[in-house]
Amino acid sequence: MSVVPAEPVESPEPAWRQRAVERSTRAAKLRAEQRVQRFLDAAQELIADKGTTDFTVQEVVERSRQSLRSFYQHFDGKHELLLALFEDALSRSATEMRERLSTVTGPLDRLKVAVDLLYDSSTPREGQQSPLFTDFAIQLLVSHPDQVATAHLPLLALFTELVEDAVKAGQAVTPRPRRTASLIMQTAMFTAQAPAAPVGAQPSRIGAEDVWEFCLGGITGAGQATGGESGTQKAAAPKKAATKRTTTKKSAAPKGATRTKA
Amino acid sequence: MSVVPAEPVESPEPAWRQRAVERSTRAAKLRAEQRVQRFLDAAQELIADKGTTDFTVQEVVERSRQSLRSFYQHFDGKHELLLALFEDALSRSATEMRERLSTVTGPLDRLKVAVDLLYDSSTPREGQQSPLFTDFAIQLLVSHPDQVATAHLPLLALFTELVEDAVKAGQAVTPRPRRTASLIMQTAMFTAQAPAAPVGAQPSRIGAEDVWEFCLGGITGAGQATGGESGTQKAAAPKKAATKRTTTKKSAAPKGATRTKA
DNA sequence: GTATGACGAGAATGATATTCTCGCTTCGAT
DNA sequence: ATCGAAGCGAGAATATCATTCTCGTCATAC
């Protein structure tokens, strides 16, 4: 990165030289990546152990049996480490979500499941798991909003697809699927994150169900399937555009099913 | 607080003694409150000046012309100071919002305006304003979720009223107004807070309008008034339950208007 | 075989929050 | 007016981290 020659792009820099350097470089790069990975793993362990992202750079260094020196040679700072972990987790999560969704068929059902999964992932666990979506994500949101947005891309892509599919199936309406997807994600993630009611209020915690209903029908109540198992179906029923599920599915579903893996 | 006698509630502790002590106490308490206020004011000024909550306790102390000693005698720590400021700001905001809403009539319009205002308050401003809703609020969400929830109460109460009114007017549907209100608030606040799209994507920033549409109709599209000025009206039209605005208003509106100030 | 760059160990720095020590005032009761 | 306790100011002392820097060592490329 900092090895860029001072001169601008003058001579195309003969390919052979490139390759020679590259060969020399490759090994080093590989070692570097291994080290980075060790830091990453160590951090991950610490997070799992302490259940929080409040670990110290020192701890990471010790656990990875490396040195502070090395750490700062590979990372711009703690925030970069966290960012790396964050991106990785979200990307991984998107992939896993796609897998689980492969067994679900209806566009709206798929979206609902996705919301459930996301909500679940974002719920703080005392025990273990990754608070990657939770506290830590929020900290980053303050300090490095852009990069957080980048990290969200994989999931956002997934949700956007889901929304688009639902729209194509005539089971949802929105002029800008991407924005809507973003709103759904945010609602699920932050709600899961949010604290229960403070005092002795009954409406305590807002669950994934509540989130789903809200996302589905907003406040005009299109999606008021308070019930249980396959609520999605019923939910959409009262709505005009969403009723002909069977019909629309015929025309739009194929595309939807395909895009899921794309 | 730490002056509680060791013995349990044995003798009802003669009232006169109580009063005597109380009288002695009152003055001190008053002085204490003044000092606290000075800290609060100083902090507020710093926030306004620097446009961030990254001020130092030292700075607060200096600005308030008091001492660290004193600061920690009155506050459990910096976070308590922030919390105090936060609660105050939110409470104040709820009040102000109520005022502005006093000129708006339709239940849904009122809710929309509230969402707009909240979104606006929560939008990060480089210049000045209160980062109290933004970065700082998020930090607290991580470290003191319960207290944040408490701080949200005033606004939550307001939004709950608005939602309930809308429901009573037949312009909204929800089994648990409080939860719905909470969801609306979160959506508005966090979305305003969220970063713009990372790459060169067009759908860039999600605006208050988008938030409102989403809250209104969810993804089933009950509220698709992409338009402008008094969009709310049109938005509700396509929905079955929401259409008879004129009709329902007759029966439910009076109650709604009343509660606004309650 | 030697120069170079990466590394480990750990000290040094710098920024902050929080605590502690020492006297000096002030307030309130007698 | 006087005394004792509590409150307070000034600022040193701690504690915690992140981040940087110094000094050798060692592996590797040439």
Write the layout of secondary structure elements.
The structure is a homodimer of 262-residue chains.
Chain A: H1 15-50, H2 57-63, H3 68-74, H4 78-101, H5 107-122, H6 135-143, H7 145-168, H8 177-193, H9 208-217, H10 231-236, H11 245-259
Helix pairs in contact in A: 1-2, 1-4, 4-7, 5-7, 5-8, 5-9, 6-7, 7-8, 7-11, 8-9
The structure holds a DNA duplex (30 and 30 nucleotides).
Measured between the Cα atoms of the first and last residue of chain A, the distance is 33 Å
Largest sheet of chain A, in brief, is:
none
Number of domains of chain A: 2
Query: Which oligomeric form is depicted?
Result: homodimer
What is the molecular shape of chain A? globular
Strand content of chain A: under 5%
How many helices of chain A does DSSP assign?
11
Query: Using CB atoms under 8 Å apart, which protein chain pair has the greatest interface?
Result: A-B, 61 and 61 residues
